[in-house]
Amino acid sequence: MPIAHVNGVDLYYEVTGEGTPLVWSHEFGGDFRSWEPQVRYFSRRHRVVTYNHRGYPPSSVPKAAAEYSQDLLVADLHQLIRHLGLGPIHLGGCSMGANVARDFALAHPDTVRSLILVGAGAGTVNREQFLNGQRATAEGLGREGIASLIRNFDALPQRATFKRKDPRGFGEFLRLATEHDALACAHLAREVMSKRKTVTELESGLRALRVPTLIMVGDTDAPCVEPSLMMRALIPHSGLLVLPDCGHTPNIEEPALFNAHAAEFLAAVEAGRWAGAPS
């Protein structure tokens, strides 16, 4: 089992294929397996790396709340990349993982060749509603365990299109989520998602970011649509793709569309022809 001993934790990772490194960072409700449609497609011409954040077995699952924060997740990724000896990478993430990828690029811009942000920025608008939702998620996990989180996912409006269009795929998503650690998920809700910086708070850094960036969001992913528009306006070499009738996880809800647009973006970056970015 490939394990990297970094930043005081063990991170499980998988590497598939050869070529320019492409690293994917997963969402709160998923893990490294969420990227399987992308691993199979992009490993034909990239060295694709997927991994589990701390708190997701078989990575370490720290028990203390203090061992979870946005800064720690960013540092974990940085040390994983160094452990694997990767040069400048293409970096993509979804939801929680997209916010990690974005903040990683802000902290280590010379390490990132391009950036793909999917469903990022939740909590920037309707702040109180977002924080109340994270608090309720954590409290439900404490009372009832992972079953509470599964019920929450099953009822969320931003996951409804996935459930409607692909019941089999959505059922697999829920099944894999049952394997998560309830205490770790509660810590992540309270210490990472509730406390990370909003797009507004990152404005100056985003304006200075020169990494070619593709921002993707589903049109039914209400918490992330406006933050995606904001990031498009702030990041100089960025483009925005809004996927129709699509929710929070386009990479598994609409994998063919996602892969096609991501592939075009990566090809444009490697040819030095993306959104005015230098080659």
Describe this entry's structure for a reader.
There is one protein chain. With 279 residues, the protein is of the alpha/beta class. The protein has an 8-stranded mixed β-sheet, sandwiched between helices. It starts with a strand and ends in a 9-residue tail after the last helix. The protein has 12 helices and 8 strands. It has a single domain (3-125, 198-270), classed as 3-Layer(aba) Sandwich (Rossmann fold).
Question: Mind sketching the topology for me?
Answer:
Layout: E1 3-6, E2 9-16, E3 20-25, H1 36-42, E4 46-51, H2 70-83, E5 89-94, H3 96-107, E6 112-118, H4 127-144, H5 146-155, H6 160-165, H7 167-177, H8 182-193, H9 203-208, E7 213-218, H10 222-234, E8 238-243, H11 250-253, H12 255-270
Parallel strand pairs: 3-4, 3-5, 5-6, 6-7, 7-8
Antiparallel strand pairs: 1-2, 2-4
Helix pairs in contact: 1-12, 2-3, 4-5, 4-8
- Biggest beta sheet summary: 8 strands, mixed
Can you list the strand order of the major beta sheet?
1-2-4-3-5-6-7-8
Beta-strand proportion: 15-25%
Helix/sheet category? alpha/beta
CATH superfamily: Alpha/Beta hydrolase fold, catalytic domain
Overall geometric form: globular
Average residue pLDDT: 97
Give me a quick take on this structure.
With 279 residues, this protein is α/β, with parallel strands linked by helices. The protein contains twelve helices and eight strands.
